């Protein structure tokens, strides 16, 4: 069904570049640590309970909640911890053979996971575009455009679930196309199983099940099946998804005493729809068109997609609409401390099926390559410069009179709404991560950086805080009172390989004399 051939070279390229971009640190975030701890406890203690400290690791949205038995359980899906299990086993075996510390080996081995998932998603996108009739060159451009011209590149080097979600949805979309073309029921089961895995990874993926069932029904009808026969056959896709939803409901019941209680603060959808849609799609702070400019070609490719695969076109369109609307109404629609609209990353495989078809037009090919170049440049900033470092520079910024508040469910009192200040990085264009990363890249090139081993920040030109580039953040003209803080304990340069080169050629904050350049 899936012949790799030339596609394997694309997958290998994506995997290698993603690895070269990695920090080789795992886990690296509070969310990732909670899921990693779940995997470790599942492997070693045969329990999903984790340390109670995760119930207070964030003031507004902690990673875990106490269950009915008094123990803490992560609010995130079980999908990623389960996928991490074989990597943990591999790390444990390698540690024993090599005689290295297990935590160090675990960080290295688990850092392979998201690059691998991103490479698989790229292969599936290329295969899907080719099955839809796109040329090999256009399909390759779509695959590489997804991997390096969108925020997928930045999430290939994190510890989150975005790469897994996107890979599973790409597998579902590819399987639906295969079913429509080859009429093999095995493809329906694969599609349903991939969606079920998605539901176990993030429950909201369940909203994609009805669009996919409709797509499968349309494919059956195009094969000449009657209405009842088409419905019955489509249930082969729905059955695995139903099992996934039932498994999530059972886990919720076991942990929290309710099939609908997952650990997230309720109510879940309290943000104004219009504001969220603008923020996720069009805003210069988090808008998808800025972090994945190739999606501007989707309207051009959509017409061809409808002609060549009504099933995928309908499933993708309906699924993307429902997905975007629900995430736009989520209080933290911006995704928190992150690069770009991370909540929209999982549905990008739908978009890049249309992008590949649009790029196949001779009059559009040049535009497609130009948009890929823009996306590559933007997301290179997201990979090279640490978002953690940028967010730390804004921790002293308080502009609630300009950002306002959002209503969200209370962590302490479920069902009660509380006001939470909105992040400047989500709503004020001068604080866009794109602008912030460009600024910090110039700061690093000026010879200023921080060590990840201590709170020391060094600069060749004197005190870090007095560097003229550092004192000229993107927001300085409009918000002169918002003074940036040095990113204590986080290097500006994110990839481990590039950071080593930076320290060898430009500045090593661990070796600079502290007496003349220490930040006080």
Tell me about this structure.
There is one protein chain. With 520 residues, the chain is mainly alpha-helical. 57% of the residues lie in helices and 5% in strands. The strands form 3 sheets. It has a 3-stranded antiparallel beta sheet, with helices on one face. Strand 2 and strand 3 form a beta hairpin. Helix 8 runs antiparallel to helix 15, helix 10 packs antiparallel against helix 11 and helix 14 crosses helix 15. The longest helix has 30 residues. The chain is globular and about 75 Å long. The N and C termini lie far apart (62 Å). 51% of the residues are buried.
Summarize the structure.
The protein is mainly alpha-helical and 520 residues long. The protein contains 23 helices and seven strands. The strands form three sheets. A three-stranded antiparallel beta sheet has the order 1-3-2, with helices on one face. A two-stranded antiparallel ribbon has the order 4-5.
The chain-level mean pLDDT equals 93
Please report the number of helical segments: 23
Q: By helix and strand content, what is the structural category?
A: mainly alpha
For the terminal residues, how far apart are their CA atoms? Answer: 62 Å
* Spans of at least 5 consecutive residues with low confidence: 514-520
Portion of residues within helices:
55-70%
Describe the biggest sheet? 3 strands, antiparallel
* N-to-C SSE string, H for helix and E for strand: HHEEEHHHHHHHHHHHHHHHHHEEHHEEHH
Give the spatial strand order of the biggest sheet: 1-3-2
| Total number of beta strands | 7
Proportion of residues in β-strands: under 5%
The value of Rg in angstroms is 23 Å
General form? globular
């Amino acid at each position: 069904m899936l012949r790799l051939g030339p596609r394997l070279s694309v997958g290998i390229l994506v995997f290698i570049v993603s690895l070269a971009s990695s920090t080789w640190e795992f886990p690296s975030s509070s969310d990732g640590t909670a899921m990693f701890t779940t995997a470790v406890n599942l492997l070693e203690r045969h329990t999903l309970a984790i340390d109670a400290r995760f119930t207070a690791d964030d003031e507004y949205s902690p990673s875990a909640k106490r269950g009915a038995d008094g123990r803490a359980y992560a609010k995130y899906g079980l999908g990623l911890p389960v996928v991490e299990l074989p990597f943990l086993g591999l790390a444990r075996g390698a540690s024993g053979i090599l005689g290295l510390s297990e935590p160090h080996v675990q960080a290295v081995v688990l850092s392979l996971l998201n690059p691998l998932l991103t490479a698989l998603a790229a292969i599936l996108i290329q295969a899907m575009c080719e099955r839809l009739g796109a040329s090999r060159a256009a399909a390759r451009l779509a695959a590489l455009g997804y991997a390096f011209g969108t925020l997928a590149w930045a999430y290939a080097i994190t510890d989150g679930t975005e790469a897994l979600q996107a890979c599973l949805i790409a597998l579902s979309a590819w399987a639906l196309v295969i079913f429509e073309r080859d009429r093999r029921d095995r493809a329906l089961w694969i599609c349903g199983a991939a969606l079920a895995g998605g539901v176990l990874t993030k429950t909201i993926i369940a909203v994609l099940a009805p669009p996919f069932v409709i797509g499968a029904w349309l494919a059956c009808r195009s094969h000449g099946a009657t209405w009842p026969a088409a419905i019955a056959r489509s249930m082969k896709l729905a059955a695995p998804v139903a099992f996934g939803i039932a498994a999530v409901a059972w886990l919720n019941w076991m942990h929290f005493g309710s099939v609908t209680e997952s650990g997230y603060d309720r109510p879940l959808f309290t943000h104004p729809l219009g504001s969220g849609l603008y923020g996720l799609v069009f805003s210069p702070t988090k808008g998808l068109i800025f972090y994945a400019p190739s999606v501007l070609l989707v309207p051009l490719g959509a017409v061809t997609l409808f002609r060549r695969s009504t099933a995928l076109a309908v499933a993708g369109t309906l699924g993307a609409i429902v997905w975007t609307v629900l995430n736009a109404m989520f209080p933290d629609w911006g995704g928190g401390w992150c690069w770009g609209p991370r909540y929209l990353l999982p549905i990008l495989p739908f978009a890049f099926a249309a992008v590949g078809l649009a790029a196949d037009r001779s009059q559009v090919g040049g535009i497609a390559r130009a948009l890929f170049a823009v996306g590559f440049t933007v997301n290179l900033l997201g990979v090279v410069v640490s978002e953690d470092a940028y967010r730390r520079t804004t921790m002293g910024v308080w502009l609630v009179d300009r950002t306002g508040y959002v209503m969200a469910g209370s962590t302490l009192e479920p069902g009660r709404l509380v006001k939470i200040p909105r992040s400047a990085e989500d709503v004020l264009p001068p604080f866009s991560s794109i602008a912030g990363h460009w600024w910090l890249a110039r700061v690093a090139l000026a010879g200023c950086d921080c060590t990840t081993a201590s709170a020391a920040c060094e600069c060749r030109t004197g005190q870090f805080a007095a560097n003229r580039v550092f004192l000229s953040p993107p927001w300085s003209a409009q918000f002169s009172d918002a003074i940036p803080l040095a990113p204590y304990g986080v290097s500006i340069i994110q990839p481990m390989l590039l950071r080593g080169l930076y320290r060898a050629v430009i500045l090593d904050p661990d070796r600079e004399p502290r007496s003349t350049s220490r930040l006080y």
